[in-house]
């Protein structure tokens, strides 16, 4: 069995979906969270000077989506067919199209600028969420998962991020998208995920 | 054999790597380029309201990277091992980290704002290119391809985009990165690619 180590800050942040994938697979790993001041010495040893990093038997993978996809493959948590896998990739990248800018907005320090960016974001949000609801409904009428018959990393990335979005936007931001909201409930209720949410380190973000 | 159709505007733009993958595989496909005014009627029929779209036997895949990865899998142009595939994904997403903002800068209409964004971009560019050169050298001392022993979609995405970067930044922007520059020459010299470059529709971008 390979040994796995995740290296990241002591937050959910970008890496939380990887922790959910480990939980779903029941796969032991070292969830290494940088101590105060540790990152600068680790940074030059990483492939791209970025965290998170997944270390598999000493080999490093950077970039969160590359990490998730790799883990999902090892754990049987990608779609069964190449077409399902492509649809899964598509949905993750489409979701990232609006999640990326949201990260920029959260970091923006200038209040008027932040307000302007946020207004722009809120105007396009219904388009993104409407399309995601539509894509979900194209598989099992939206009562299952984004692709195939069982949970995949695509559902995990979506649901895991809505945790943060609910906090930052508002807890009811999915109210007009009942299939997406039900997917969130369904994935969070998977026993391994429910257990991880209950027992994971408490962090603000 | 499946039938393939690419749908995109009459530019290289986001989709050109897919065309290079078809060329490398010698795979016939319909390279559908929207006529003036055609896109608005196509847009609502696409998965995410976005182009490019790949249509495979009537099923649609959106999001350029999902399209490239899918085609690369069909054509044997992904890495052999899961680890190589993850490294390939990582390099593409890392490369996208600086290519994405560059697209925003190109579209920025306000000159002072454009100048400010460009200065910021140019300050971080050597970090990205330095890391990409380092990543390339980690495989076959940088004299082969990004992962494994033969060309993959990761090389194609990189090289294809440097065409645009050379034009927008300057033709010599890789001068300090001899392994990256040699990779560009190597991939562009592959007979199928050289032939495509020579015969493809002439477009400005």
UniProtKB/TrEMBL annotation, chains A, B:
The lineage of its organism: Eukaryota, Metazoa, Spiralia, Lophotrochozoa, Annelida. SUPFAM superfamilies: GST C-terminal domain-like (SSF47616), Thioredoxin-like (SSF52833). Belongs to the GST superfamily. It catalyses: RX + glutathione = an S-substituted glutathione + a halide anion + H(+). InterPro entries: Glutathione-S-Trfase_C-like (IPR010987), Glutathione-S-Trfase_C_sf (IPR036282), Glutathione_S-Trfase (IPR040079), Glutathione_S-Trfase_N (IPR004045), GST_C (IPR004046), GST_superfamily (IPR050213), Thioredoxin-like_sf (IPR036249). S-crystallins are structural components of squids and octopi eye lens. Contains relatively little if any GST activity. This is glutathione transferase. Residues 2-79 form the GST N-terminal domain.
């Amino acid at each position: 069995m390979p040994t796995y180590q995740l290296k990241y800050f002591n937050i959910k942040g970008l890496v939380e979906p990887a922790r959910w994938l480990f939980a779903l697979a029941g796969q032991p790993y070292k969830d290494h969270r940088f101590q105060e001041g540790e990152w600068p010495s680790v940074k030059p040893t990483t492939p791209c000077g970025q965290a998170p990093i997944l270390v598999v038997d000493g080999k490093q993978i950077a970039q969160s989506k590359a990490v998730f996809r790799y883990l999902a493959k090892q754990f049987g948590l990608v779609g069964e067919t190449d077409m399902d896998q492509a649809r899964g990739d598509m949905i993750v990248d489409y979701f990232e199209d609006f999640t990326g800018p949201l990260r920029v907005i959260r970091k923006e320090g200038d209040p008027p600028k932040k307000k302007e960016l946020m207004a722009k974001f809120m105007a396009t949000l219904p388009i993104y969420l409407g399309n995601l609801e539509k894509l979900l409904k194209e598989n099992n009428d939206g009562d299952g998962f984004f692709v195939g018959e069982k949970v995949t990393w695509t559902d995990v990335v979506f649901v895991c991020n809505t945790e943060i979005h609910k906090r930052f936007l508002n807890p009811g931001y999915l109210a007009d998208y009942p299939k997406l909201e039900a997917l969130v409930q369904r994935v969070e209720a998977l026993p391994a995920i429910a257990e991880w949410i209950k027992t994971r380190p408490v962090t603000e973000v």
